[in-house]
Amino acid sequence: MDNHWHKQNKINSKMLSLSSLTSGIAVFAVMFCLTKVFSVSLCPFNNILKIRCFGCGLTRAFIEILNLNFKSAFYYNVLSIPLFICIVLYYALSLFDIIFDKNYIIYIEDKLSKSYMYPIYAAVIIISTVLNNRYSYF
């Protein structure tokens, strides 16, 4: 009985990861529609400080990636291509874990959540913000 509960808990955890990624895709779609309808930036940094943050242009960059315009995607946001690849790999690995009952996502999430990764994340955010303000379309 305990083994059945443990297996069900692992499936629920994997389904939660998959559903959170799917909800992220839904938020992306809503942001894209709002940006297209109102033709404004939804970023408070851009609206108030006139500085492009590390996330500015991601929606348009992802649309460009889906249209195979990688150069345009880079100019919208320098992190767009690596981030898009990571999202696709994460989604595929989540499906793989669910189908084949593996735990690769848990292992990767454990490694990426270590405290020694925080300075790397901060450096990526700072560097991408600087580069986004340097190589921007808008």
Query: What is the percentage of strand-forming residues?
Result: under 5%
**What multimeric state do the chains show?**
single chain
Uncertain ranges:
none
Task: Assign a percent range to the helix content.
Answer: over 70%
The helix/strand class is mainly alpha
Task: Please give the alpha-carbon distance between the first and last residues.
Answer: 59 Å
Number of helices: 7
How many β strands by DSSP? Answer: 0
Estimated radius of gyration: 18 Å
**What is the N-to-C order of secondary-structure elements (H for helix, E for strand)?**
HHHHHHH
- Count of domains: 1
Shape: globular
The main sheet comes to: none
Describe the 3D structure.
This protein is mainly α and 138 residues long. It has one domain. 77% of the residues lie in helices and 0% in strands. It contains seven helices and no strands. α1 packs antiparallel against α5 and α3 packs antiparallel against α4. The termini are far apart. The mean pLDDT is 83.
Topology (SSEs and partners):
Layout lengths: L1 H37 L5 H6 L8 H9 L3 H7 L3 H21 L3 H9 L5 H17 L4
Helix pairs in contact: 1-5, 3-4
